[in-house]
Specification:
4 helices; 125 residues
Length: 125
Amino acid sequence: MNGKERFAGAILVITLAIGIIAGVFDRHQDADSVLRQACGSPVESGDGGHEIFRKLDLNIASVDELEILPGIGPKKAGAIVDYRERHGGFKYLDQLTEVKGIGDKTLERIAPYVFVSTEVTPACD
């Protein structure tokens, strides 16, 4: 392999790396903007401040919405929706640990971002 081929290969690798990083960043930004919509309840952030976001209702959230939660990917999001459909919805938040793949630690991570409603209401008026 000559110098020009190595240079072209290096440029290709760098371009691919930048594309991957940009894709991850965009996904993070999309999730962040959804969780921080200004029509929800304040939740204390890790730095002692407060952040405003719209909480997701486990009884109506879509797979796509559930996927933005920390530690929830497509498989777990689908399992949540399947469980909800089989059991007629969630009655309380801790019931989420009955979904395969979701334990106490995952529940603890996503609890600030979700709630369980008993009736379907619009997220924002």
